Amino acid sequence: MTPMTPVPYRVAARRADLADTVTLTLEPVAEPIAEPAPGQFTMMYAFGVGEVPISVSRTGPVLEQTVRSVGAVTRAVCATAPGRILGLRGPFGTGWELDAAKGRDLVLAAGGIGLAPLRPLVLAALADRDAYGRIAVLIGTRTPDDLLFAAELDEWRARGAQVEVTVDRPAPGWSGHVGLITGLVGAADIEPALAAAFVCGPEIMMRVTAQALIGRGLPAAHVRLSMERNMRCGLGWCGHCQLGPLLICRDGPVLPYERVLPLMTVREL
Amino acid sequence: MKAMELTDLGPLFEALHGAGRTVVGPTVRDGAIVLAELSSADDLPHGWGVELEPGGYRLRRRSDRAAFAHSAGPQSWKPFLHRPRVKLWEADRTGDGFQIATDSPDPPRYAFLGVRPCDLRAIAIQDRVLMGGRHTDPSYAGRREGALIIAVNCTEPGETCFCVSMGTGPQAGPGYDIALTELLDDGDPRYIAEIGTEAGAAVLADLDAAAARPADVDRARAEVTAAAGRMGREMPAPDLRDLMAGSLGSARWDDVAQRCLTCGNCTMVCPTCFCTRVTDTTDLTGDHAERWQLWDSCFDPDYSLLHGGAVRSSAKSRYRQWLTHKLGTWHDQFGSSGCVGCGRCIVWCPVGIDITAEVDALQAEADSP
Amino acid sequence: MAPTLAVWKFASCDGCQLTLLDCEDELLALAGRVEIAHFLEASGAVGEGPYDVSLVEGSITTPADLDRIRHVRAVSRTLITIGACATAGGVQALRNFADVREFASVVYARPEYIATLAESTPIAAHVPVDFELHGCPIDRRQLLEVLSAHLTGRRPDVPAHSVCFECKSRGNVCVMVAHGTPCLGPVTHAGCGAICPAYGRGCYGCFGPSPAWDGARPNTRALLPWLDMTEDETRRVLSTFNVAAFREAAVPEGPGDDAPA
Amino acid sequence: MTHRHDRTLKVGELARVEGEGALYVRVRGGDVAEVRLDIYEPPRFFEAFLRGRAHTEPPDITARICGICPVAYQTSACLAIEEACGATVDGPLRDLRRLLYCGEWIESHALHVYLLHAPDFLGYHGAVELARDHRDIVERGLRLKKAGNTLMEVLGGRAIHPVNVRVGGFYRVPARAELAPLAEMLRRALDDALDTVRWAAGFEFPDFVHDHEYLALSADRYPIEGGDLRSGAGRAFPAAAFEDHITEEQVPHSTALHARFTDGGTYLTGPLARYSLNRHLLSPLALEAAAGAGLGAECRNPFRSVLVRAVEIVYAVDEALRLIAGYEPPDRPAVPVEPRAGTGHGVSEAPRGVLYHRYDLDADGLITAARIVPPTSQNQTAIEDDLRRFVAARLHLDDAELTRRCEQAIRNYDPCISCSTHFLDLTVERT
Ligand SMILES: Cc1cc2nc3c(=O)[nH]c(=O)nc-3n(C[C@H](O)[C@H](O)[C@H](O)COP(=O)(O)OP(=O)(O)OC[C@H]3O[C@@H](n4cnc5c(N)ncnc54)[C@H](O)[C@@H]3O)c2cc1C
Ligand code: SF4
Ligand code: SF4
Ligand code: SF4
Question: Of A45-59, B307-321, D304-318, D378-392, which gets the smallest average pLDDT?
Fold first, then answer.
């Protein structure tokens, strides 16, 4: 066993969330990996096909990972049937550090598949509801059909979270928000100065959302983002996940907004 | 600690071989001084020197019999410790999944003979990356832990060397088991051997060598000190880390991109560059899979691939990544510079791009209003 | 049902499809894994299309081949081109820079019988291609890699970086820097394993230009002055088995190497 | 009766030949009116674009004429250019050339015997089908083929289009130690080669003989990497006189270039010719194998060429072992070849027969004219002649069977159609 050896996990359940996105429930075949914190990721291995970084979308006694099929490896992972085995290494990287936001209002902003890494954070906050102020979950997707975890959102609402969804392109029958996620920032029912924000999505979406939140008065020091870079090891050896001074697998993926902002604005860094 | 004098490296080879070590050191092959397994002191490049320039390397005959007067060659010790290709494991398909097997053959027990001070530091830098963080690279660690290091203080810097400005030479820093200084008179060279570790002391104890005369020890020191004044190049800029951080938008990157081939040679020859990629392969049946770790380089087009394309697609951004990492962000990531001043990237760049000249230009650009 | 494999030949030397038969250790395993349904060089049995994978060797040089490649595309689920002829027009693309009528008259007594196109063009110039494997000839290990990757559904490990990557990994002494031997390795697509430098000669570019970045041309112009060759020598060294691709790569317009806008 | 008085037989795509060709047979009034081996390999114009190239380039460029026998092209090209420049390659460098060439013979012959030709005799479509019933046999063939390829890989860098060949010799010559593992491999291959002869001797060979004049090289050893030309009828001339003795002309009513002797005679080159003219130069082991397989002083049955190839594999393996055993690395990898104005001719024995190259160079070593005559184009007249007679005697067979037999007959000659650099393109005629 070396840090590069995948640990076998059995797919206990497979749920097709969207046309191209699947949530897998994973059980260790023997020794489990350490319990991931919300925001951390694992390297998932599909036999013979390859390995990719995927965040956990539920952690604790039940481990779930939500994967969008975009290429060879994610296609193979998504296609894995219940009962079959995948490899996991990890967990790697920094978590959302929810504890540091104790007592504050929470804004969670997700773009597309970015909701997956935020889900364990929502669940953790709802499980310890009294430790936080108001909780607003802002979600941007392309179309209503691309809305991840749609069936769960009402439950989050019922447990005291405000959940707002906006779509780029509405479908017939859509009565919700239309437009960029920044349009939802104003609707978040929070006290900005006393809030903390957690943002995950495409880089450009994270930047404008963070700006909008800060524009409403949310302290920049309380904004965290989850970054994405090519990764081959997850261990800080392969060099691929560099973003300027950062190794995203080690120093990230969750990072303070203020730390990444100057790096995000440099082209091709 | 007491220094000893070796008049002949033969007994040293015998002692190392006798202890079951594979001796690796410089030797002449294909028109260059390469590092390879040596069977005896005769394999050393006695009487060979080199001429170096950006994009150029030539052997030249020396008038003496020096074995170590040739500055850095085409490889560093990297291929022996951080190998170009490592099989990480293999796996076979089973009914519902797969069974992984990791075979870890016993790593070779090397004795590295003739490690130059810059390379000694480079090994320390790779140690930090591959063994000094939360996770240890077992392949590297296995080889590294078994290696005995016999350094050679540098008395013959090359035209492209700048270890002095990087603070890595010409006197060997910590990390060696034994450090030699080559003394040249008529005939065969003599060596002043200094002990760095107990393992080194044990090797020397076997040789029944005489204690070095104080005059020779002084002379050895003086020659190394003199070498410091003969560096072929100098790395400018007092604080490279700041210069790099402040130069991300510099126009110089466009200039160097006109010349750079993105061929990756600089990263391959660099003794500290550590990047690897991982490839998962299968055989034709699809039932047997392997994972390999291969040298990679930030100049590879796929290095920064994300779904949808590479982050650093232009040559300019890739050269900038290499230089700013090496001299700047390495400090943030691993607490030191990633450059030891060996000059290899200058010599082995097929179009002679000179890291010190590029830094000069960035400095000039930063200084200009 | 085993997937079906077809091998097709256009203008070429047969070397790339021979590479398949040169996989002596794997050939029978391959035959057990796929049904080799159309491979004239190896068998008289011709299976019905459509085929799951077609390997296409050779370039398009005749009007009849123009029709045939469209047919091949139509009966192939995955079309993989193999070799410099199929991916870049091959050595016969030298005609693209000359008068093909005159060429014909040098070789043939009755050039009027020659039905040939003015240019030798790669397959991708005529039909969509799913994967291009470079080399003149292709490398056996890479061919096996592409086939096994395809059968497993993974990305083939066929890096687009330069020959220098392989050269240094192999431990060669650089012939360019240490001997002054002109070498196209820095701008040539890896894949051969850096054989030429290992044998003491400069790379002559038989794997074609390595993209400086995804799909773009390498910075050949920056290398040329360092090759220390006359203009004629330079022209010749770039005019061999990937002539069309290298000529394009060396066009002296715009910056040789900059980010795509 | 299956046979008709008027019929046309067309084999659109010949299988198990190298390159792309078709067969066309027309029967009129019960007689064979026309037999044509169509070459629709698209023209690639090598001789045209060699003009203006440097004298150092033909080994690399002409290798690309044929992926099956690149070493033959490289060797004939080197010989021609060395002659033009007044350079001679002999001693260990010449031996290394021969050793490399042995690799090509072993590979190419094993390919032909096992993968292309044997299935005909045993009633299979190809080697993959054959392997289903006789895996061990096909594996033996692949082992032999691999031995040839390995030899080329070690000496040439790779088996197809080797990179290590240059005018004047090599870029790098091997150390003795590098050849040692080859010898080990070849000793095992020798057993496989001898088994191959025994196995092929058991095939059933149709009764058929031809009476073409044989043309092959002759040298002090069994001809491979060079020599002078000699024919069964006593013709003898050096490479430089090739074009005096042999013309390629357009025959009335046909559009393919046919090689003949200038005096009009047709000839055959290749294994049968080599064997029949040089049997005495075979190694004792190869000679013994030939005798054991029932091959006499001369072989005129093209179907038995498979046997002759098998014997030549034994010879090539044996010869390679001899060359390795006697190898002393030369002091330099190549002799200098300084360009000068002139003409040079080179011939060598490709697996399929005599391969001729001529180059005219100017004072700077640039090529002003090139001529390449591959074996298959030389044999075309003979092949068509044989087919005519072969078909005439078998008109009672139905189309399918006749077609099958014709294809087998063509494969006797192991025609390499990719090599046919200057066959006329027959697309026009086929419509
Ligand atoms: C920290 C982190 C967390 C992630 N979490 C999730 C998640 O929860 N759900 C999800 O669906 N996706 C997630 N991704 C993205 C996911 O890793 C990529 O979609 C995946 O790598 C694509 O691989 P592929 O082989 O399917 O696609 P291809 O496009 O074929 O990719 C080829 C190769 O490029 C590299 N690569 C491509 N895209 C990425 C990428 N975005 N990040 C890193 N390497 C890449 C990989 O090496 C991959 O094998 C995460 C990425 C990171 C870095
Ligand atoms: S690419 Fe080269 S080896 Fe392949 S078919 Fe063409 S000429 Fe032959
Ligand atoms: S020999 Fe050629 S391929 Fe090898 S490193 Fe040098 S320039 Fe690159
Ligand atoms: S080094 Fe270059 S020319 Fe030589 S085989 Fe490789 S790609 Fe071809």
Answer: D378-392
Q: Which residue has the higher pLDDT, C107 or A137?
A: A137
Q: Residue C100 is part of a domain; what is its CATH number?
A: 3.40.50.700
Task: Calculate how close chain B gets to A83, using CA atoms only, in Å.
Answer: 7
Which of the residues in chain C have pLDDT under 70? Answer: 108-115, 212-215, 248-261
**Minimal Cβ distance to C211: which of B297, B301, B352:** B301
**pLDDT tens-digit series, residues B85-109:** 999 999 999 999 999 998 878 899 9
Residue of chain C minimizing CA distance to A72: C154
Instruction: Write the CA distances from A222 to A186, B35, C16, D418, integer angstroms.
Output: 17, 53, 60, 71
**Is residue A4 exposed (0-12), middle (13-18) or buried (19+ Cβ within 10 Å)?**
buried
Q: What is the pLDDT of residue D283?
A: 97
Interchain pair C154, A48: CB under 8 A: yes
Beta-strand runs (E) in chain A:
7-18, 21-28, 41-46, 50-58, 63-68, 85-92, 105-111, 135-141, 161-167, 177-178, 195-200, 223-226, 242-243, 246-247, 254-256
Q: Among B164, B173, B171, B120, which Cα is nearest to B341's?
A: B164
Q: How far apart, in whole angstroms, are the C-alpha atoms of residue D90 and residue B103? A: 50
Cβ atoms within 10 Å of A100's Cβ, excluding its own: 10
In CATH, D46-378 is 3.40.470.10: no
Domains in chain A: boundaries: 7-92, 98-229+249-264
- Ligand with minimal distance to B305 CA: 1
Note the pLDDT of residue D18.
63
What percent of chain B clears pLDDT 70, i.e. is strictly above it? 100
| pLDDT surpassing 80 at residue D14 | no
Q: Which of B264, B285, B317 sits opposite C162 (nearest CB)?
A: B264
Instruction: Classify B38 in phi/psi space as left (phi over 0), alpha (psi -120 to 50) or beta.
Output: beta
pLDDT of D21-78, one tens digit each? 677 788 887 788 888 777 666 777 888 889 999 999 999 999 999 999 999 999 999 9
CA distance A51 to chain C (A): 11
Question: Cα(D165) to centroid of ligand 2, in Å?
Answer: 17
Instruction: Name which residue leads in pLDDT, D24 or D164.
Output: D164
Domain count, chain C: 2
Contacts of D146 (CB under 8 A, 6+ apart): C24, C25
Contacts of residue D393, Cβ cutoff 8 Å, sequence gap at least 6? none
Give ipTM to 2 decimals.
0.93
Q: Enumerate the domain spans of chain D.
A: 7-42+385-430, 46-378
Shared domain for B305 and B182, answered yes or no, is: no
Q: Is the CB of C89 under 6 A from ligand 2?
A: no
Domain that holds residue B37: 2-230
Residues B171 and B253 in one domain: no
Q: Collapse the DSSP code of D289 into the 3-class scheme (helix H, G, I; strand E, B; otherwise coil) and give the result.
A: helix
Q: How many other CB atoms are found less than 10 A from the CB of residue D297?
A: 9
Cα of C171 vs centre of ligand 3, distance in Å, is 11
**Quick one: which atom of ligand 3 is closest to the CA of C185?**
3
Q: Is the CB of D329 under 6 A from ligand 2?
A: no
Residue range C238-257, pLDDT digits in tens:
999 998 888 765 544 433 33
Both tokens of residue B92? 């076979």
Q: For testing the chain A interface, which of C147, C152, C214 should be mutated: the one with the most A CBs within 10 Å? A: C152
Best C154, C158, C213 residue to mutate vs chain A (most A CBs within 10 Å): C154
Rounded to 10 degrees, the C-alpha dihedral D64/D65/D69/D72 comes to -90
How far apart CA B284 and CA A120 sit, in angstroms, is 40
Tell me which chain A residues have a C-beta less than 8 angstroms from the C-beta of C152.
Answer: 48-49
